[in-house]
Amino acid sequence: MSLSGRLQSKAGFGRAGSGSGGAGRSSGFSSGVKNAFFDRPAVIAEIGKQAAASLSRTGALVMTIARRSIRRSKKHSVAPGPPHTQTGFLKEDIVFSYDPQTKSVVIGPYRCPWLNILMEKGGDVPMEVCYYKLNRILMKPGRRGNSRIVHTGQMITAHYAPRPFMSRALRVGKERYAQAFAPGAVATTFG
Asked: Which strand ranges, in their side-by-side order, compose the sheet holding 149-160?
């Protein structure tokens, strides 16, 4: 079986719950994502203990590199460097699990797939100008947020410069830790 570090926005990842993860809080994982973790008996039975351990090590390695590349800061990161996080949401959101269709490991953020693709590739997206506690914020159209957010109805196009962090984490992992990747490993990214 060939080892694959696939970075893809999976439908199951995008539909996961909205919990924030972390100690004492709901994990936010849907049962589909939880059931695809490498310590689950169904996954071990399907691919074997040794293959599960190998894929799990690769997933953990790339996930750790990606998480460590994201810095906590109130300022925007400089493109094309990895993005910054103000709340830690993006760091917590990066997980890895088994993909039974391709028999590979899927690594990446799962709760907000449209934003993750936008960070990796860059692009333009329509946003609504809103205000929260007198601060101007941008929200994706159709999102309501909490009751203190004032929606103006004014639409703008926000430009996002590419800030790849998952493809960079995969590349760094393969360069530094070639022994963790099986020979003939296939690496694909978004698109």
From this structure: 135-139, 123-132, 149-160
